[in-house]
Amino acid sequence: MGTYPHTEKHYDSGVKDAHISLIHSIIDEDIRRAGFAMGVVEATETGRWTKVLEGDTGLSLNELSTIYKGFQERGWDSRFPSTQTNDVHISGLIGKNAFLKAVYDGDIDPAQLQSDIQQLYDQTKNEKHFFRALFNIIADKNPVERITEDLLELDQFCRDNDISFSEVTKQISPTVKPNSTWQKIKDFRFLLVALVGAGVGLVGNLADVNMIEEFSEHLSAAITTLTNNGLGLGEVNIDLSSIPGTFFGALPYIALPFITLSIFNAFSQKSIFKEIGTFARFTALMGFGVVIGLAVTAGMSDLLPSLEVADAARDIDKSSSFSPAQLILPGIAISALLATVYRKAKEGLSSRFEAIANMKRDYIKTGIDGATLITDKSFMTFINYLGLPAVFTLLALTVNSSGAGELAPYLNFYAALSTSMLAGVGALAGLAYLNGARKWEFGNVIKNASTAFGLSSSAATMPYTKQTLAKIGVPSHVRESVVPLGANFNMFGTALYLGTTAACASVMFGLEPSIEQLAGIMALSVATAFGAPGAPASTIIFLEPVLHNAGLTPLQAEKIYQMVIPIDRPADMLQTSMNVTGDKVVALNTQAYEENKGLRRFIPWTRHHGNDGQDARPAPVI
User: Fold this and answer.
1) How far apart are CA 457 and CA 418, in angstroms?
2) Which residues in the chain show pLDDT less than 50?
3) pLDDT at position 319, please?
4) Quick check: 66 and 110 in contact, CB under 8 A?
5) Chain CA centroid to CA 13, Å
6) Helix axes 476-489, 568-595, angle to 10 degrees
């Protein structure tokens, strides 16, 4: 890999101690081993061995591999550092015997590790607004070359970015970083704000005072005093009760570019024609999720409350009222088509003209990426800065005017939604069983689902999903195809959630949807779920077009959002778990389809068996 000039580095004490421990473990006070190791290191730079011994620079992976292989050829035992039990060192690679053994056995070569890091680096750039909470690859002119050149720098890099070595896949991958107390509070901010708003409203109801009106008057008075003293601008009137209307009125306008750009980005990277089988499985699974939601809603329809909104809402002529949500479905189709045309054109031009193939910058994709980043940031800013006060005001006004009894419909709706999601979890478990998963595989699946629950991002969970599939024996070519596609396209939990919410809303407002409308709910739930990025809170914005398609007026949709947004975070976490588990079900089905014929891929007792009558579990394929 060549060398680069040595510059003074400042490594944390754990990295430096682990490195020195590694060197002493390698030479083991044996003059023959020390001499051989010194010869390997001095071959690249005179005087470098002294720097390595003092921890001022590190061995390169090539050097470490050459030293270990040289020891092996001479019959000398390998020596690994005894730092595994030291909590300071356990997060790094140098103190991990599994990593060093992989280097010793030749399971890791610098070129492959370089490729792995490049993949993480590219993945982070593509998903930076989702991955930032998990790990952040350093910004360097040549980040890959530098960190793989020097083992000490690689170890520091992995510690800084929460990256560890997987003994299963023999690759480095991001680790799960536990959330701090503040992060947990932040994650559940909508629920907390909703509870505070309901509490404020209850106080106002008991005292027979409109609390939001009181707050508005006091805030207006305070700002008027400030501006009159400083600028003399006159009286200021603020109406906090208008915030919810502003929030929900703007929501569909945010939804349209957010969804269409997400779809374009997804399909510009992957060809639906090359992965038609995988896409068909995703579509069928998501459609199944919506059917579960519709069935549960039908079964619990008698328990759902009847809702009403102001007369003005019921009298709206839907044919004359425009909402950008009407454009979502054609927008999805057009975005997918344009992305396919763009990708095909780019591939065709690159194959014909070498200059185009070697172009450093794709101006169209750069523009789309820039627009996507702006849209995504706008969405999160919109949700955080206008969504939070909108939820607070909504709950305060509702409880203030009607008392705590107004919250009763929420509980019935939550019961229906929870039942639907639990049914979805049971359906996924049944599908996994039918495709060959057994007790020990389920343990790994559940562990992976719990990781997804915590991260609440399908994209961030990808490395762990791949590891889980490797452990249960899914071949590399299947997991490498299904998992990245699933993180972008397979949203079983999201489709189920959207379909259930829309169906419940129709029942609660007495709309009695026709077969055609139910089919529309199903189609739009699946289509919008396809465009949902693997990021927290994205389903808030994807619910708007589905509710609109179900026939709800803007004020009726606002009433549903009033119930949905406070519990969005736990619902989103459960959706992510189901989405990721759905990826594994599709991977298992793909494997079963490749290994069996006809019904053998679905019926467990027709699969291959071992001598003890138990299902023969395939050995993990790495």
Assistant:
1) 20
2) 1-7, 83-90, 128-135, 138, 310-320, 597-622
3) 43
4) no
5) 33
6) 150
Concatenate the DSSP letters of all residues of 407-470 into one string.
GHHHHHHHHHHHHHHHHHHHHHHHHHHHTT--HHHHHHHHHHHHHHHHH--HHHHHHHHHHHHH
Residue 233 CB-density burial (10 A; 0-12 exposed, 13-18 middle, 19+ buried)? exposed
Provide CB contacts within 8 A for 446, sequence distance 6+: none
- Residues, the chain, total? 622
Q: Which residue has the tokens 């929030």?
A: 247
Amino acid letter, residue 522 = M
Q: Say how many C-beta atoms besides its own lie within 10 A of residue 177's C-beta.
A: 14
Q: Which residue has the tokens 């509490």?
A: 199
Predicted local confidence at residue 7, as pLDDT:
44
Exposure on the CB side of residue 577, measured as CA atoms within 13 A: 22
Residue 532's nearest CA partner among 255, 130, 340, 262 is: 262
Q: What pLDDT shows up at residue 84?
A: 45
Strand partners, 173: 164
- For residue 141, the model assigns a pLDDT of 55
Asked if residues 323 and 552 have their Cβ atoms less than 8 Å apart, the reply is no
pTM of the model: 0.68
Which residues share a beta bridge with 166?
Answer: 171
pLDDT in tens, 530-539: 766 555 556 6
In a 13 Å sphere around the CA of 554, the CA atoms on its Cβ side amount to 22
pLDDT single digits (tens) 320-360:
456 676 777 787 778 878 888 887 787 776 666 666 556 65
DSSP string covering 250-286, please? HHHHHHHHHHHHHHHHHHHHS-TTTTHHHHHHHHHHH
Residue 20 and residue 88 in contact, taking contact as beta carbons nearer than 8 Å: no
